[in-house]
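Consider this:
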Amino acid sequence: MGTTDTGAIDPIEAIGNIAGKYNLWFHLDAAYGGFFMLCDEIKQRIKGMEKADSIVMDPHKGLFIPYGSGALIVRDKAHLAKSQYYTANYMQDAKASVDEISPAEVSPELTRHFSGMRLWMPLKLHGVKSFRAALTEKLLLARYFHDQISKIPGYEVLNYPELSVVAFRYIPKDMDTDSFNKKLVEEVQKDGRVFLSSTIVNDRFTIRLAVLSFRTHLETINLTLQILSEKISEVFKSIS
């Protein structure tokens, strides 16, 4: 649910139906895109999410929480207990407590810090509405960038953003496209005012705009467009 490369969403409901038919474990990777379920317009695209046996979601991405806040949601925690339970002689005293499944019995970690506080406290302070508004803004910013970059001659935009990632590249005449875009993204990164990353899509070097920082607003996107224009001119000059 939201690939890292392009933000694409798989046909979740259809895959869930197949998994159900053949009694397969249906795991949903929603690490990046899962929390966009808070946005009403995305709910239809992720129909079938409720069929998953397990879902991974990262609050440090979609909820702007400090890094290290990952979450694994499992429909039946007994499956985790069966697969992850571990005991040893030095743990025999813990066997006396059988009121509930211990967190130590459902993951490879026997002890851990209380990372759940990072998620609970912001939600308690600000409420879900604030996070919904912030995520909706990121969707709109990605679409705005897509629309603007598509109007500029020379750019190839790979996808209309399903979430908040836009994959694109510049197609120079009589030059190697991959080399040009590598140089372009390097110059943007060296500039330092915004950060664009890159990936490989269908064996082609591709630039990524990933809008998922709570500090990113419309002025940041406009600045990115301005910087790209500046750096394209510089790359052409350096090559010629």
In short: Residues 40 and 88 are 48 Å apart (CA to CA).
